[in-house]
Automatic annotation (TrEMBL):
<protein>
    <recommendedName>
        <fullName>3-hydroxyisobutyrate dehydrogenase-like NAD-binding domain-containing protein</fullName>
    </recommendedName>
</protein>
<comment type="similarity">
    <text>Belongs to the HIBADH-related family. NP60 subfamily.</text>
</comment>
<dbReference type="InterPro" id="IPR013328">
    <property type="entry name" value="6PGD_dom2"/>
</dbReference>
<dbReference type="InterPro" id="IPR051265">
    <property type="entry name" value="HIBADH-related_NP60_sf"/>
</dbReference>
<dbReference type="InterPro" id="IPR008927">
    <property type="entry name" value="6-PGluconate_DH-like_C_sf"/>
</dbReference>
Amino acid sequence: MAEGGMIPCVPAGEPGAVDHIRPCLTGVIWKGIIDFSGEEPIKAAILKVIGNIFIVNMIETLAEGHVFAEKTGLGVENLQKFLSAIFPNPYMIHSKEMSTGNYYGKEPLVSIDMAQSLAAETMDMAKESGTSVKAYETAVEHMKMVKSYAGPTGDIAGLYGVVRMESGLGYENRESKGW
């Protein structure tokens, strides 16, 4: 998502400082900006954490949807037709990682180590604020299983492999690689 310029920048702090850097942000580095001028900078960091929750939960949901489509006979191709029509980006980016088998045996799109590091910070913040994040907790448990199975080369899309294993399939989607 970052490489595709799909992530907005969230500058926060003193309005004059935000105005000073705005020309370097809009249309140059980022998709756009979410202006938090006058807000405490910590609020931009909190928004980033919430964004990470959305992304991880999206990947977990995609993993479950892919396995459900496989196990029921709907097929991933039909699922992807739906995703393309309703959620073209970033759902399709991660869906393709899953369906093509690119979540294992290659350089990770998002390393499981980085994902787990961010997850630890997120879980700490959720606990400190008294926020329930049950769906995210499921994904965090699956991250541990990805790390156990794939090691440091594990990819966040390996959540799909874990859901496959929990559903009686193998971690690796070998059919997609032509094996």
